[in-house]
Specification:
single chain; about 150 residues; alpha+beta; four-stranded mixed sheet; four-stranded antiparallel sheet; 1 helix; about 45% helix
């Protein structure tokens, strides 16, 4: 009787080990899918922040244009990836190209006037100045190394 009980116990232990190995293999197989899903979610969230910043930037450009020469606005920008702001004179279009986690997204808007903007942005905190200098809208970027107190 003792042999049967220990044999049954060994079989149960072996079945339990095989089940655990099967579950482990299943989760290992799912890891790349989970990783891609997390990466896609992070990119989507970062893209929303970039869209909001681009809207703020174009609003600042429009306001400084309407307010006339000598007016300026400043925007704080916390870049989580790499971005580029450029203005295509032939199309009269400003574009923000955003790259993060191996993905890229473009935000564009047509304007009725020219803008001087050609900025490469790495990850970090920045201050953008949008200024109307005698009818010419200029976008300048400076890195902001100030630490905020919480």
């Amino acid at each position: 009787m003792l042999k049967t009980s220990s044999a049954r116990s060994a079989q149960v232990s072996l079945e339990l080990i095989l089940m655990l190995l099967g579950l482990t293999a299943f989760f290992i197989a799912l890891t790349p899918s989970i990783s891609r899903a997390v990466e896609a979610t992070q990119f989507a969230l970062a893209s929303q922040g970039q869209q909001a910043f681009f809207n703020d930037l174009t609003n600042a450009i429009e306001q400084t244009h309407l307010l006339g020469s000598g007016n300026a606005m400043r925007l704080e920008y916390d870049s989580v990836g790499e971005s580029k702001i450029e203005f295509d004179e032939s199309a009269s279009e400003i574009t923000l190209i955003f790259s993060f986690a191996g993905h890229e997204k473009k935000f564009s808007k047509k304007l009725l006037y020219g803008v001087q903007a050609n900025e490469e942005i790495k990850e970090g905190k920045y201050e953008l100045t949008v200024e109307n200098q005698e009818g010419v809208i200029k976008v300048r970027l400076t890195q902001n190394n100030k630490k905020k107190l919480v």
